[in-house]
TrEMBL record, chain A:
Subcellular location: Cell membrane
Name recorded for this polypeptide: Unannotated protein
Protein topology in the membrane: Peripheral membrane protein
Species for this entry: freshwater metagenome
Residue ranges occupied by any ABC transporter domain in the UniProt entry: 8-240, 257-505
SUPFAM superfamilies: P-loop containing nucleoside triphosphate hydrolases (SSF52540)
Pfam family, any one: ABC_tran
Record key words, sorted: ATP-binding, Cell membrane, Membrane, Nucleotide-binding, Repeat, Translocase, Transport
Gene3D superfamilies associated with the record: P-loop containing nucleotide triphosphate hydrolases (3.40.50.300)
Molecular function via GO: ATP binding; ATP hydrolysis activity
Keyword Nucleotide-binding: yes
Annotated Gene Ontology cellular component terms: plasma membrane
Automatic annotation (TrEMBL), chain B:
UniProt organism field: freshwater metagenome
A single GO molecular function term of this UniProt record: transmembrane transporter activity
Gene Ontology cellular-component annotations: plasma membrane
Subcellular location per the Swiss-Prot or TrEMBL entry: Cell membrane
The protein's name in its UniProt record: Unannotated protein
Membrane-spanning parts: 12-34, 54-75, 87-104, 110-131, 140-158, 194-212, 243-263, 275-301, 313-337
Keywords of this entry: Cell membrane, Membrane, Transmembrane, Transmembrane helix
Length: 508, 365
């Protein structure tokens, strides 16, 4: 083993939040001059960990050592002082400033704002092969170049450890290759890179060491040469995989949801013209679960929101049990029989500062038993919330408790119970078990299976391939807004799905 | 286990009390620094008001209450309607013209003028609502600008319709005929009458509470205020709610000047009271957007105003010291609500954790 202290050593890091998965006993060693990947599902605790390492949040327990010296980081400025820099997924650049101005902003004391700074930027750019011209306007740069500016900003401030949070999420494949080239340059110069991702193939190709985080804790550190992406996936998800569908098929020949030629234009602006959804067509039958696989950001969220009527620009045809939804508002669509478990329960699923019974009414304002002549009968709403709390095993002191006080799993069980209570014929479940504990996960899987048996059509979106394979009757892969392959879950492996998701493989 | 609703009420009361104590403390510091007699100032202000003062306090509070309600409607949806000031002046002017023309007889004329005021206020606020919903213009900016435009607009039209009062340089609209005024009532044998409009203000408070807490529309409005994204996902049209909330806020703002118009001045002139809209912001904050809370806030502000009048004569201190207290209240209210809110969230999380722990132990046993 190397005799020098590791660039970063985390020991027993713990962080608790109410209602969210926290960090618990995280142990990581990042050696000097290496690329260290940290992988885990969404909600596994990667972001919290990085915020701790970058001084945004303080850990409740554990120690951080940087280059052998124990430190306490109480702000990003502290982290930068200790040579830790972070490149966020969402760039923090001023578009109407030049590269030079963006780089020196907040670091004016280092090399001034003039010729010395320009020289330093050019030196760093040349040393690591970043290819950055200091006087270009940021708004004229592409996504890949902006990311390199962010990396340069961090290096300019003297970082020896560079954290990259999901850096490839916004890049096209060629840009990913360029980025990996840059990272290898950094490594060659003795810097350490911490690379956060949930894309296993990328991680296997670039990392020297991989640490897997599951449910807030480090479960393994592995050598990429010795693992397959299937093994990594198992480590990420744990042994609690749903049993691949051994249940008999309940698929009927009645089409519940018919989507034809659904398109959604991209946002306006340079380089943003690619449509978010491109001529998507599929049917879901009663009693069928259709799983949608895809790398995050390839149109899954837009597909769901277009079906829900939350995306005004969408074109094409959506019919629910023969009813044309195209002209209907989100509320009318829900009333037509759609239950919706949103991807982000805090943003789209709950009123965090409202009591549970108000959250029960949310999305079902016009429904019995509480809606009468435009009024809301609170007693009826409370009673029905009590029913959901009992039937769906929501652990709460009462229905007047604020949604914020519940754990993530219990919040999600309330949402599932609510969406199953509106007599839906279609259930849209986007990442239904993201960030919930094991017990709640099993319960939610059970509810989705029950829904299928009860003859609902289910549209299941998940980043967890084993969840998709275990629950779906059919899996469609979405890539850059298009359906690119259809798979039978009883015969597909996560590797096959993975290559289709990245565009490397075709349909079976 | 304690009733969570009782705990909530206790916390709800703790915040404003804490804010007031802090505000009094800071005001006392100002007095000490200025070398003014702290004790005498407070004993003058915090004394029991006399009968004639009570009528003034109630009248002033009526006006402030309506202003607070108007602001609170917006607050419940995270809309910051700073334009209540402009809205009520446009509305009061329109009402004064309508009532002064007396197209209808007696009480019908009053009702028509009140409706006209609400419509005018709604229309004026609606401009900001539509700009926000359709073009994303911040309602803070647009309502402030509309305040200025309202000042100019009213001054301009006032010249067109005004009649000059005998022996005065003031100009105003035609006086409202006696049959269309809203009669007041006396408390004890004081010379000042309490505005009859106070009952309409109380009614407005009740309607506010009922609509927000008991109707689907109110649910949608509160849901949108708490989380726009969750509201959209639940099927609420946020653009529509934005416009409607501004219209309602403006309609309530339209009532603000009417107690003065129908109970005191009987015409809209160049001396009509202005600045009532800004006090409403402070009062809505202090009252936590709750109709009873706003009433208490309005009474408190009116009480402080009234009680500070004799300061100059009795202790030789400028009554403006009360404006400092009122201003400081706005700041301490924001701080103390946040402190108490965080404490409440912690308390609730502990309660949830305790309940779950108890569950687990039961399961074990």
């Amino acid at each position: 083993m190397p005799d020098v202290a590791p660039a970063v050593r985390l020991r027993g890091i713990g962080k608790r939040f109410p209602g969210v998965i926290a960090n618990d006993d995280i142990n990581i060693d990042v050696a000097r001059g290496t690329i260290h990947a940290i992988v885990g599902e969404n909600g596994a605790g990667k972001s919290t960990l990085m915020k701790i390492l970058y001084g945004v949040q303080a850990p409740d327990s554990g120690t951080i050592e940087i280059a052998g010296e124990q430190v306490s980081l109480s702000s990003p400025a502290d982290a930068i002082r200790h040579g830790v820099g972070m490149v966020f997924q969402h760039f923090q650049l001023a578009d109407n400033f030049t590269v030079l101005e963006n780089v020196v902003l907040g670091a004016e004391k280092l090399h001034g704002i003039g010729a010395a700074a320009r020289a330093e930027i050019t030196r760093i750019s040349d040393a690591y092969g970043l290819g950055i011209e200091p006087d270009r306007l940021v708004e004229d740069l592409g996504v890949g170049a902006r990311q390199r500016v962010e990396i340069l900003k961090v290096l300019y401030r003297g970082a020896k450890v560079v954290i990259l949070d999901e850096p490839t999420a916004v890049l096209v494949p060629q840009e990913v290759d360029e980025l990996f080239g840059n990272l290898r340059e950094l490594k060659a110069e003795g810097l350490s890179v911490i690379f956060i991702s949930h894309k296993l193939d990328e991680v296997l190709s670039v990392a020297d060491e991989i640490t897997v985080i599951r449910r807030g804790t480090t479960v393994a550190t592995v050598d990429p040469a010795g693992v397959t992406s299937r093994q990594l996936a198992e480590l990420m998800v744990g042994s609690e995989l749903p049993s691949p569908s051994t249940e008999s098929s309940t698929v009927t020949d009645r089409v519940t949801l018919h989507v034809a030629d659904l398109s959604l234009p991209g946002a306006e602006g340079p380089g943003q013209g690619r449509p978010l959804l491109d001529a998507i067509s599929f049917d879901i039958h009663a009693g069928e679960v259709l799983g949608i696989a895809g790398v995050e950001g390839n149109g899954q969220a837009e597909l769901v929101e277009a079906i829900m009527g939350m995306r005004p620009g969408a074109t094409g045809s959506i019919r629910l049990a023969g009813v044309d939804l195209d002209q209907l508002s989100t509320r009318r669509r829900r009333e037509a029989g759609i239950g919706y478990i949103p991807e982000d329960r805090h943003r789209h699923g709950l009123l965090l500062d409202a009591p549970l019974w108000e959250n029960r009414v949310l999305g079902h304002q016009t429904r019995k038993p509480w809606a009468r002549l435009g009024l809301i009968d609170r007693k009826a709403a409370r009673a029905d919330t009590e029913r959901i709390v009992a039937d769906y095993d929501v652990r709460t002191p009462g229905v007047d408790t604020l949604a914020r006080a519940l754990s993530g799993g219990n919040q999600q069980k309330l949402i599932v119970g609510r969406e199953m209570s509106g007599e839906p014929i279609l259930l849209i479940a986007a990442h239904p078990t993201r960030g919930v504990d094991v017990g709640a996960q099993a319960a939610i899987w059970g509810h989705i299976k029950d829904a299928r048996r009860a003859g609902l059509a289910v549209l299941l979106i998940s980043a967890d391939l084993d969840e998709l394979i275990g629950l779906s009757d059919r899996i469609e892969v979405i890539l850059r807004g298009r359906m690119v392959g259809s798979f039978d879950p009883s015969h597909v492996t996560p590797e096959q799905l993975g290559s289709a998701m990245t565009g490397a493989g075709g349909a079976v | 286990m304690k009733d969570p609703r009782l705990v909530k009420l206790g916390l709800g009361l703790a915040a404003p009390v804490l804010a007031l104590l802090l505000a009094f403390l800071i005001t006392s510091l100002v007095l000490v620094v200025a070398g003014d007699p702290v004790g005498e100032v407070w004993s003058t202000i915090l004394g029991v008001p006399e009968e004639r003062n009570i009528a003034n306090i109630l009248n002033n509070a009526t006006v402030l209450y309506l202003s607070g309600l108007a602001v609170a409607v917006g607050f419940r949806m995270n809309l910051f309607n700073i334009g209540v000031d402009g809205q009520y002046r446009v509305a009061a002017f329109v009402a004064a013209v309508v009532a002064g023309e007396a197209w209808l007889p007696g009480a019908a004329n009053t009702v028509l003028a009140i409706l006209a005021a609400m419509l005018a206020g709604a229309a004026w606020a609606g401009i900001a609502g539509v700009l926000r919903a359709r073009r994303g213009v911040s309602e803070v900016i647009s309502t402030i600008m509309l305040n200025f435009i309202a000042t100019g607009l009213v001054a301009y039209f006032l010249r067109r319709v005004a009649v000059r009062e005998e022996g005065s340089n003031d100009i105003g609209t035609k006086e409202i005929p006696e049959g269309s005024r809203i009669p007041g009532f006396s408390i004890g044998d004081g010379p000042t009458e309490v505005y009859g409009f106070i009952f309409l203000a109380a009614l407005a408070g009740f309607v506010y509470w009922f609509v927000l807490n008991r109707t689907r529309f109110g649910f949608d409005l509160r849901a949108t205020g708490r989380s726009t994204t969750a509201a959209v996902a639940s099927g609420i049209s946020v653009t529509k709610m934005t416009v409607v909330a501004m219209l309602i806020s403006g309609a309530v703002a339209g009532l603000v000047g009417l107690p003065l118009l129908f109970g005191d001045s009987y015409s809209y002139g160049s001396t009509f009271q202005s600045g009532l809209g800004f006090a409403g912001i402070a009062i809505a904050l202090l009252g936590r957007n709750h109709p009873i809370g706003i009433a208490i806030g309005a009474l408190l502000f009116a009480y402080l105003d009234e009680q500070s009048n004799p300061l100059q004569i009795l202790v030789g201190v400028s009554p403006d010291i009360v404006a400092i207290t009122q201003g400081v209240i706005v700041l301490t209210v924001v701080i103390s609500y946040e402190v108490v809110r965080r404490y409440g969230v912690r308390l609730e999380q502990h309660a949830v954790a305790r309940a779950l722990e108890a569950d687990r132990q039961e399961a074990r046993a």
